[in-house]
Amino acid sequence: MHLSPSRVADEYEWVRDRTGVVTLINRVRDELGDAFETTVAEVTESEYRNEVDAVFANGNLAVNVAGLVAILRELDVDGDYPGFVIDELLGRELAGMIAGNQPLRLLGEATFHYADVMHHEDDEAAGVDDLEAALAAGFQTRLPGWKWKETESPFSVE
């Protein structure tokens, strides 16, 4: 695979146009909100696209995100199950990369596995469902809507 600025732009357009991910983001937020007894704001397609823009505006992040997106879009394994580890590994990494620095990175990675269990695409390559779960997990983690993210941490040292 060769990554060039034009290939990164192509992957950016693919991710930006994949607005069905917003439905998965909101399903994940609903279920996690119920599990943690909190209300989590829904994400709109516009918020998703704006955040995709922010991720791809950082060239160093964009090239790495684009590389993982491209691999997962093409990844398919005969019988799927033997490839279970590689698509999980790549999906988890992509979710964490999109989510941001710690602790958001770890939350994105953990949320990936939750989103992946909820989501399956039978009509595309095996890696696409992991890709969409990674996009949902990463973007839902970095987007506002969680109350704990909207307040100052009581653990900051002056």
From TrEMBL:
Residues 1-157 form the DUF7984 domain. GO terms for molecular function: phosphatidylglycerophosphatase activity. It comes from the Archaea. GO terms for biological process: lipid metabolic process. Transmembrane segments: none annotated. Pfam families: DUF7984. InterPro entries: DUF7984 (IPR058290), PgpA-like_sf (IPR036681). This is DUF7984 domain-containing protein. It comes from Haladaptatus pallidirubidus.
